[in-house]
Design a protein that fits this description.
Layout (H helix, E strand, L loop, with lengths): L7 H6 L8 H10 L6 H4 L10 H6 L28 E5 L2 E5 L27 H12 L6 E5 L8 H12 L6 E6 L1 H4 L6 H6 L6 E7 L8 H12 L3 E7 L8 H14 L2 E6 L14 H12 L9 E5 L6 E3 L5 E3 L5 E4 L5 E4 L9
Helix pairs in contact: 10-11
Length: 353
């Protein structure tokens, strides 16, 4: 397997970008990190100007345009970071940002100001020890979520060291990893890495970020199966993106693909207000309509929670419209998946339940 493509010149040489876009791509790469793994490069159709894989990973001049509402820290990690590497926004769980590099760089990344080879890098040993001490000293922390950056770029030895530290903290019961690696570098999911993710007494969950069903290649699905067969649960994370998946049929294919692979659809994120990402954002009312159309198409097993991270660090809220409207002290109108309205409880007709 070859090396990732990390420059505009390399993307042009690989035939993924036309020569007339090299200069604009270089300007974007000077501002934000670029990396396209060989597995992702193989999925891109350079003859399709609307290719949803290319749109996620190839630099575009639109990234150099900033909107007034955008911000460097769109979900407010900073105000909730008591020590380096920790974000403690919710009472019972923390983010542990042990590394700030990724195997690929999404063009819509909400942490694009801090990830990449010029970013914060990896926590050094004293900083990691301080982060673990913070977790150890707070018994309310039930779950630790390793993110970054992509934690699965770390070596199995480094991962095993972190898991050993967490294994010694009795009140931590769940360890979750947020990653793209099973889809973008599936061969990395080998026996050594899988063994490194395990810790005695902890439930381990891997959350896979994928946005289009084409990312779930046979190799990617096999990598996920290796994790699942080793006893590791998997959930999904997807970002609702204009030009990639802002369509109920496209999302249905993706969500069914997750379930077929043994992955429970978890979050569908409304895109964050990261700098230079306005061309990816859909309106909330459009997103709600897409999610309602998705609900009419798929099994409940396939339904993720459509959520917004409130800018400023105030946490996630569901964005779906409520199908229930109060009409009296204990009566309601309920809308079915086809838009029909029903009284609840229904008017009595004398028949048994």
């Amino acid at each position: 397997m070859g090396a990732p493509l990390k420059t505009a010149g390399a993307l042009v040489a690989a035939g993924l970008l036309p020569l007339d876009r090299q200069q604009e791509a270089e300007a974007v790469a000077a501002r934000y990190a670029v990396a396209v793994s060989p597995d992702i490069a193989a999925l891109i159709d350079p003859t399709d100007p609307n290719d949803p894989i290319a749109r996620q990973f190839l630099p575009d001049a639109s990234e150099l345009l900033s909107a007034p509402e955008e911000r460097a820290d769109p979900i407010g990690d900073g105000p909730h970071s008591p020590v380096e590497g920790i974000v403690h926004r919710y009472p019972d769980r923390v983010l542990l940002k042990a590394v700030h590099v990724c195997p690929v760089y999404c063009r819509f990344c909400f942490r694009r100001e801090v990830v990449g080879p010029e970013g914060a890098g990896m926590l050094d040993q004293p900083a990691l020890a301080a982060a673990i001490d913070y977790i150890r000293s707070r018994p309310e922390i039930w779950e630790v979520i390793l993110t970054g950056g992509d934690p699965l770029v770390m070596s199995p030895r480094r991962l095993a060291d972190i898991m050993a530290m967490l294994a010694g903290i009795e009140h931590v019961k769940i360890v979750r990893f947020h990653t793209r690696v099973p889809a973008v570098d599936p061969e990395r999911i080998d026996a050594d890495l899988i063994d490194a993710l395990k810790a005695g007494g902890k439930t381990v969950v891997v959350a896979l970020h994928a946005n289009h069903v084409r990312e779930l290649t046979p190799k990617a699905r096999a990598a996920c199966r290796r994790l699942i067969d080793a006893g590791i649960s998997m959930v999904s994370q997807t970002v609702l993106l204009e030009g990639v998946n802002a369509d109920a049929a496209v999302l249905a294919d993706l969500m069914r693909g997750f379930v077929e692979t043994g992955i429970k659809p978890y979050y569908l994120h409304h895109p964050d207000l990261a700098p230079g990402t306005a061309h990816f954002r859909v309106r909330i009312e459009e997103g709600r309509a897409i999610v309602e159309a998705l609900r009419a198409r798929v099994s409940g097993l396939c339904m993720p929670a459509y959520v917004l991270d409130i800018p400023g660090g105030f946490g996630k809220v569901p964005l779906t419209n409520s199908p229930v409207r109060r009409t009296g002290a204990n009566t309601f109108d309920v809308q079915d998946r086809l838009g029909g309205q029903h009284a609840y409880p229904p008017a009595g007709d004398g028949s048994p339940d």
